[in-house]
Amino acid sequence: MANPAKPTSLPIPWPEDAKVQVYTGGCHCKKIRYEFEFPDIYTTQMLSCNCSICEDRGYIHAFTPSDKFRFTSGSEKDLTTYNFGSGTVAHRFCATCGTSVGPPIAVLGAVSVNARTIDDIDIGRLQLLPSDGKSK
Asked: Example GO molecular function term (predicted)?
């Protein structure tokens, strides 16, 4: 993977003075668990894309540098990967329940965390930034 992204160079940059917190989440069956660092989840924008896979899987993207995302349980053998199009995103899924968990975006040095997989998230409180991926 490329060098980890700087928080200010992510697809949705973090504020310069952002205080980061550690959030946890995982797949539906709980075989895969992760933690990641991110500013306040309810005040930092997240990307809501309308491309085919984002709409199909219900992605709401919270971008974090690759060195700020860690699996805390499960392993690579518990994941399956799906690449399509340009192949720049290795969509990783739990091999048991199919939940998308932390697709890395190697060219950016970032990981996209689907907000819907974050523990105790209130989706209605998120600040969403629409993106027209369908037309790209």
From this structure: carbon-sulfur lyase activity
